[in-house]
Amino acid sequence: MYRCSEVVRLISSDEYLTVGLLKKLQIRLHLAMCENCSKYVRHLRALAAAVRMADKAVPDSEVKSAKSHILQRLSGK
Amino acid sequence: MRGTNFADPEFLDRLRRRDPAGWEAIVDAYLPQLLRAGRGMGFSSDVAQDLAQSVFVALMESISRFEGRSHIRTFLFGIFYNKVSEHLREKQKVGGNDPIDDVMESRFDLNGKWRQPPVDIEQVVFGREVGGMIQECLENVPRAQRIVFYLREVEEMTTEEICKKMAISGTNLGVMLFRARNRLRECLEKKGLKKG
């Protein structure tokens, strides 16, 4: 059986993606039985979703100013 | 230039001839994405702009070698990820110790059981003020870790793609993702405790 520290390590490093089916099942089983680990994994997922949501396009003004710099640089080439 | 077909050989010819309108179309099409990705990886707006500029300059220098077998977007982003990987290598000190490793170790006892179980941070993570808090916590993530975290969680690349594009080993990537994710979670937990 996997230990909590190992489950957290395997999941937060994405290493669990590379383990075999049996190990995956053991990890799933551990998560199903361990409240703390399943909570921890939920947090990691929620965190990733929140970062995705927080990723916003840069303001038009910034794009415009960058664009004029870049076009100027390109025309000098 | 709206609706320009970038795959059109005639358009590529115009780029090779350094036709200004053609280059403007390419910049218009991809600059917003390049800036967004640069900012998302934690570069300041000045550095993100310099990075984007260096990508277009490199594209102009190599466009004669571009045969149009892949989409120009793929080619351009290939240049971008290459440049990002240079930054990653500069900043990265994997193998070296990272304080988050000790923090994580201290959360478990010698048998690998939770000594300090995770505190509920659902309210923090799902709550309204989360945007600001996450931003603050992201600022504390070292650059290399933040880059791979961004590629994995926001651009949703596979681990294989990231290893290939950033020229790093799977083990290396795993260590960086581990540190980035746990560091962020720790940071939010601390903020949540302070708030609650």
Task: Write structural notes for this entry.
- The complex is a heterodimer of chains A (77) and B (196).
- Chain A has 77 residues and is mainly alpha-helical.
- By secondary structure, chain B is an all-alpha fold.
- Helices cover 69% and strands 0% of the residues of chain B.
- Chain B is elongated.
- The model of chain B has no long low-confidence stretch (mean pLDDT 90).
Which spans of chain B of ≥5 residues are poorly predicted at pLDDT below 50? Answer: none
Structural class label of chain B = mainly alpha
Give the H and E element order of chain B: HHHHHHHHHH
Under CATH, the homologous superfamily of the largest domain in chain B reads Winged helix-like DNA-binding domain superfamily/Winged helix DNA-binding domain
Name the largest protein-protein interface in this structure.
Answer: A-B, 43 and 57 residues
Q: What is the helix fraction of residues of chain B, given as a range?
A: 55-70%
How would you characterize the largest beta sheet of chain A? none
Q: Return the domain count of chain A.
A: 1
Question: Describe the biggest sheet of chain B?
Answer: none
**Net shape of chain B:** elongated
Please give a handful of descriptors for the protein shown:
heterodimer; A: 77 residues; mainly alpha; B: mainly alpha; Rna Polymerase Sigma Factor, Chain: A; Arc Repressor Mutant, subunit A; 10 helices; 69% helix; elongated
Brief characterization of the structure:
The complex is a heterodimer of chains A (77) and B (196). Chain A is mainly alpha-helical and 77 residues long.
SSE layout:
The complex is a heterodimer of chains A (77) and B (196).
Chain A: H1 4-12, H2 21-33, H3 35-54, H4 60-75
Helix pairs in contact in A: 1-3, 2-3
Chain B: H1 9-16, H2 20-40, H3 45-62, H4 72-91, H5 99-106, H6 122-126, H7 130-139, H8 143-154, H9 159-166, H10 170-195
